[in-house]
Amino acid sequence: MSAGGDIEALIDMMARLPGLGPRSARRAVLQMIRKKELLLTPLADLMHHVAATVRECATCGNIGAGQICDICASEKRATGEICVVEDVADLWAMERSAVFGGRYHVLGGTLSALDAVGPEELRIPKLVQRVTDERVTEVILALNATVDGQTTAHYIADQLEGRVRLTSLAQGVPIGGELDYLDDGTITAALRARKAF
Amino acid sequence: MSAGGDIEALIDMMARLPGLGPRSARRAVLQMIRKKELLLTPLADLMHHVAATVRECATCGNIGAGQICDICASEKRATGEICVVEDVADLWAMERSAVFGGRYHVLGGTLSALDAVGPEELRIPKLVQRVTDERVTEVILALNATVDGQTTAHYIADQLEGRVRLTSLAQGVPIGGELDYLDDGTITAALRARKAF
Ligand SMILES: [Zn+2]
Ligand SMILES: [Zn+2]
């Protein structure tokens, strides 16, 4: 490479980001160096700032800059509906479709015997508590249509059975599909046509 | 997005890097936030460090951490051969093939009447000067096989005519192809089979 050890190290680290390989990392780093004042320095500043301020919402697990995330803090969001998602990427995908006006609960993964992920690791007790505390009337299980996602949905449904209306995203989510890969229209259709779980 | 303004700003800026779109930028940013200590903070540190130290080599135009780049400073690199490339990505591509043991001259682009890029902007006078000062015997014109690349190669050949052996990369470079997209083997073959310009 002969680009100086620091530039090489930067390329190696960039190449570890999802969606970037060695080649695109090299191109990205060169572009940043070419636009040092416009790209490299502001990006580094922003990363330091985000690293210093980002945290998980104490209520829902979404990420934001405060103790409570923007969605949980917003008075415009309905309190009676909670949409349960696996991770923040799925929450963002739901938000882009702009069809859901309630609040979220981010599990941070799915139940997995193999990886020893139990209900405690997934904020499921916290979800059960919220259903009571926030007078929730509907929980939408917006988990991925994978085996682990559906296992997790069934487990949550068992915990909340009889205490709240349980629904899941319906038509439009393909078998084995993941929310974060769907277009906004598909998510909108799936949410509108949601059915009892 | 509702991810907090700073996270959104970081995603927007990452999405401006080559090879990344909005979706991969979102995934990259989430991954960095998940691995804050391992990825986000070290990446920001490294970017600041590179922004503070990176500079163009006063001799060849390559980037590095000093006044003179690692290649120009190395006593192991032959001084009699200069390989002329359009940009640093092309230099890196040449270096990955590890077949060239001489030095480089990075033009920083190609001549272009349309974009008002003349010889001065491309370090061509500096190249002519190096040919004399460094007792260069061969100049390899490793410019992209595009119209502008070849126009630039001919212009440089005119300037150096009769003063040095002029060669160009030969077989293996496809018509309209760009060095940075070629595999290492193709570059090796093209350099080995270089022909008089
Ligand atoms: Zn929240
Ligand atoms: Zn140099």
Automatic annotation (TrEMBL), chains A, B:
SMART domains for this protein: TOPRIM
CDD domains in the record: TOPRIM_recR (cd01025)
One GO-annotated biological process of the protein: DNA repair
PROSITE patterns in alphabetical order: TOPRIM (PS50880)
GO molecular function: DNA binding; zinc ion binding
Zinc finger region(s), C4-type: 57-72
Protein origin, superkingdom: Bacteria
Domain Toprim: 80-174
InterPro entries: DNA_Rcmb_RecR, Rcmb_RecR, Rcmb_RecR_Znf, TOPRIM_dom, TOPRIM_RecR
This protein's UniProt keywords: DNA damage, DNA recombination, DNA repair, Metal-binding, Zinc, Zinc-finger
Family: Belongs to the RecR family.
Listed NCBIfam families: recR
Cross-referenced HAMAP family: RecR
PANTHER family noted in UniProt: RECOMBINATION PROTEIN RECR
UniProt function note: May play a role in DNA repair. It seems to be involved in an RecBC-independent recombinational process of DNA repair. It may act with RecF and RecO.
Protein name: Recombination protein RecR
Gene source species: Pseudooceanicola batsensis (strain ATCC BAA-863 / DSM 15984 / KCTC 12145 / HTCC2597)
